[in-house]
Amino acid sequence: MASAKPLTSAPLVQIASLLRRRRLSPVELVDAYARRIAASAELHAFITPPGEPVRREAQRAERRLARGESGALLGVPIAVKDLFATRALRTTVGSRILRNWVPSSDAEVVARLRAAGAIVFGKTNLHEFAYGVSTANPWWGIARNPHDSRRSPGGSSGGSSIAVVAGLCAGALGSDTGGSIRVPASLCGCVGLKPTFGAIPLNGTFPLGWSLDHAGPLARTVDDAGVLFDVLSGGDAGRKSRRAATRGLRVGVLTGSIVESVQPAVARQVDAAAAALRRRGLRVREVAIPEMQWTVATQLVTLRAEASALHARWIRAQPRAYGADVRTRLQLGSLVAAADYVLAQRMRARIRTAMSHVFRDIDVLLLPSTPIVAPVVGERTVRWRSGEETVDGALVRLTAPFNLTGQPALSIPFGAAAGLPIGMQVVGQWNEEARVLAVGRLLEADAPSR
Amino acid sequence: MPVPVTERELLTAAARAAGLRLSAADVLALLPAWKRYLRLVEQLRAAVAPGDTDGIG
Fold first, then answer.
1. What is the least distance, in Å, from the CA of B14 to any CA of chain A?
2. pTM exceeding the 0.90 threshold for the entire prediction
3. Is it the case that residue A214 has pLDDT exceeding 90?
4. Do residue B34 and residue A349 have CB atoms under 8 angstroms apart?
5. ipTM score here?
């Protein structure tokens, strides 16, 4: 059998193929990943690293492969963000409050991964209760960017992104309420897909904001993300995307105040991505969506109210059981008036309508995933010509709008600044994941080498 | 019961009404973010004009 060592950073599609053809042993593979995890402990990618039962699962997968059984992910190790319930495996949601919770059943997405033959490969670190974008977790360790350990990996699915980029698993599962898949994908340099709202079931997933939550894959390639999305959604958009026609598609490059403050290197890569798509025969033009100026306020009110409703009892009974930043957000959320929430939903409907109108004239929207590259851990503000912005606010400024609208959005690595990855975002019409993945694949092929 | 007059007192009163147990230090720490929040909501309110039916009659 082939040595597993150089394969730890190979695309999932390649790993699955080698396993199917019995050119690679799942046991050797999980051992190789386990060695890398042990050597990367300082990244704090995992809350619960894969243990001995995982090796037994790999042995079972090896026997199934030997019998010629099939499964899209048979024997493939997938890391799971620690807010998806896993049967008989601790699920902390990155918190102290749930540090001893051992669910009695799997979340639906975990069950789907297992049904496809995947090995649930440990539980990854996240921002406490997924309510933040740094993964500086006060209880389970401050997660570190694999490109520069002084910097943040982003969040809240920071551990899943690190695990994918550092070669600690073949792919990973994340969740996204304001950008929690796409932000860490952008800062760490992997592919992250937030699908259409509702495309992937959330039962067994610890919520953050009911009307904004999405589950989705983090992966090394667009193909990998497509394979994982098909397993998680039960559909075939990933497969369809491989033969989807892209020539002549209409691309809108977002302009306006929401994208005015971005780092110059990020702006240059947006131009390069637009040029690459134009060379591929897509019709590229600029579009403005003025209503997007209200997405920050609308998301803030909506998420604060929904998260505080969920945490209503705990935040009142045991506020000190939360880390300082999450405690502050939940306490402020407890003060959101019903009238303010209604106001935000009215604006949200208006933003959604505006987006629908724009998408009559375009097929996909192109914009950066994040306006900045990975910030130094603990950095609080970013300075623009127009003034200061909080780092947390900047990181979700360009992702959160699509949680409000529920459209599919993909982050793809595209270029770098001083060795740090830049993420490009492709947004599609509702339920058009195949098209989003197809355009993402073009950008992946034409991405400048880092 | 005294009528709240300062923003700090307003926040304290709002927190108490919401059932939060905040120390004076907690209130001070929350105050800047709460004021930012109120400004944002005010802007939202101005953008969604009262009486605007969002096209639903």
1. 7
2. yes
3. yes
4. no
5. 0.87
